[in-house]
Amino acid sequence: MRALWTVLFKELIENARDRRTLLSALVIGPLGGPLLFGVMINLTLERGRERAEQALELPVAGRSAAPNLVAFLEREGVKISELPGGAAAAADAVRQRKARIVLVIPDEYGAQLRAGEPAGVKLYTDTSDTSASGDRSRAEALLRGYGGQIAAWRLQARGLSPLLMQPVAVDEVDVSTPAARALALLGMLSYFIVFATLMGGLYVAIDTTAGERERGSLEPLLTLPVPRRALVYGKVLASGVYMALSLLLNLAAFAVSLRFVRLDTVGMALNLGPAVALGIFAVMLPFVLVGSSLMTIVASFTRSYREAQSWLAAVLLVPTLPIIFASLYQVPSRTDLMWVPSLSQHLLIQSLLRGEELSPLHVALSVGATLAIGALLARIAVRLYEREKILG
Amino acid sequence: MIVIDSLAKRFGAVEAVREVSLEAADARVTGLLGPNGAGKSTTLRLLYGALRPDRGRALVDGLDVATQPRAALARLGVLPHNAGVYPLLTARENIRYFGALHGMAGRALERRIDELGELLELGAILERRTKGFSQGERLKVALARALVHNPQNVVLDEPTNGLDVLATRNLRELIRRLRDAGHCLLFSSHVMQEVSALCDEIVIVAHGRVVARGTPEALRAQVPGGSLEDAFVAALDAGTA
């Protein structure tokens, strides 16, 4: 038991001096997720808001040829600006992304309109510019609306009902609200939490196993009168401590950064105060044992530091896969899923974030099953170190 | 005192050690001499428990390494081949780690580290991180680490590998001092001069077997001309024949 503490403290101190460990446990792991998540969720919220709120900007070439059309657009709140130079200038402006769309009104527009022929206007746009698609469809809708109005007047002037023009009335009902999109994103929150937790112990797990062998310090260590399990448990716990640290910082960073996300503007309340953050920490702690044991096992199989790095990058994905599926398919919290590490944590975290009461049975199953699997993995790691082959 | 009794070890199709027996007495330096691949390192690894023998046994002060590993290893100080140190720890921390794993602690441990620092002439580097140490400095730290619990028996696997002349000389002196203090020393080498300069007893191994043994004088007397090199080559020839 004393040997275990000796190994644990030595690995903690040694890794505290390792820049790679500190970077992954204190910076990349904890902060990467909140940053990315904050940007993602803000973009989702912004996109919805922008479209409705911002006035459409429309540069027009040849506006003097169609004063009524321009007046109509201005009444609809479009910001019209004059673009001199005709069609060539319009194409250039769009191509150089100075404008997303440009309306070009030819000189013969007025004559065509008076003669009752289709009066041609040109809407310059670049369909490869995805950011212009919103502006384009708004402008098209407005121009269609203006055309519809003129058509209605012409029919009325001939004594016909304008409704003849509308045999089918299509009304689009968009049920995807920004709030719903944000909710789907929140499902990814636990993905980032699991990722940050694993990142925290990644380099410690490599350093204490593959790194130790590569440096040639493993063999001297194994000549000591110390049971192998004390050495391995010490190493697993050292990764675990860094994982817990990374997890804690990650939750703090999320709690702070999500204050700047205006979820209330879309009628959503996100429940991530100190109490919920601590709850998530407690729910995640058993998973730390699974993660650190798993990484220790995989890193022990590899022949070098670099090989361990590539393998562990793959291992990082394994516990996050169930979460991705669960959040894509919106899997509800179920008792039979509480046996699965990472998935059960994800489901419990979702409940905590929604402010729901946790089922004691679910918590007990998640904690018990995760700890049991973690202990089994740690035991396997010990068996690996009891083999002769561990020296490579 | 170390007794190796008919050890054998096979890796797949390769018989690394066919049959090696030897005795290394207290207050003596015993050299395990042999060409590369003769089975020296495997024999020593079987002795210090890193490998399990297919046959035979190894005793440290009468304790069987296979059945009483912890008691046997506690009486053994080991410097494995190309032993590495922890670069982010200071020399003292490196030594302290092993001392603590041997169950030492507190003032007694620190005093022992100071003692080793003097014995190995570590000087100021004792408090420096070992990153950037020379090969000789790293070896000193690894050696101090192996000696921290003041073991009666000391096993060194090719300790002079990669050392310059001065460092080799210092190491030789240290080995003699440990012998004079009554320790049992067993070390392996493929360099004959080194073994002849240092050993009270030489065991020559080739192809996993002991092909000759005796004091340097006795081995020299076996060949006309009386050079140890001739004796070494003659023993190897006899072993392969």
Can you describe this structure?
- Chain A is mostly helical and 392 residues long.
- Chain A has 2 domains: 2-46 and 180-391, no CATH class; 55-170, abc type-2 transporter like fold (3-Layer(aba) Sandwich), CATH 3.40.1710.10.
- Chain A has helices at residues 2-16, 19-53, 67-75, 86-95, 109-115, 133-157, 178-186, 189-215, 218-222, 228-257, 274-301, 305-317, 321-328, 343-353, 360-386, and strands at residues 57-61, 79-82, 101-104, 122-125.
- The relative contact order of chain A is 0.12.
- Chain B has 241 residues and is α/β, with parallel strands linked by helices.
- Chain B has 2 domains: 2-75 and 151-240, 3-Layer(aba) Sandwich (Rossmann fold); 85-150, no CATH class.
- In chain B, helix 3 runs parallel beside helix 5.
- The longest helix of chain B is centred in the last third of the chain and has 16 residues, at 165-180.
- Chain B is globular and about 55 Å long.
- Classes of the chains: A mainly alpha (392), B alpha/beta (241).
- The interface between A and B is medium-sized, with 23 and 35 residues.
Q: Give the biggest beta sheet of chain B.
A: 6 strands, mixed
Which structural class best describes the helix and strand composition of chain A? mainly alpha
Q: Which class best fits the helix and strand makeup of chain B?
A: alpha/beta
Give unreliable regions of chain A as ranges. none
CATH architecture of the largest domain in chain B: 3-Layer(aba) Sandwich
What is the average of the pLDDT values of chain A? 86
Radius of gyration of chain B: 18 Å
Compressed to H and E, one letter per element, the order of chain A equals HHEHEHEHEHHHHHHHHHH
Beta-strand segment tally of chain B:
10
Taking the alpha carbons of the first and last residues of chain A, their distance comes to 27 Å
If strands are numbered along the chain, what order do they take across the biggest sheet of chain A? 2-1-3-4
- The share of residues in extended strands of chain B comes to 25-35%
Beta strand % of chain A: under 5%
So what's the overall shape of chain B? globular
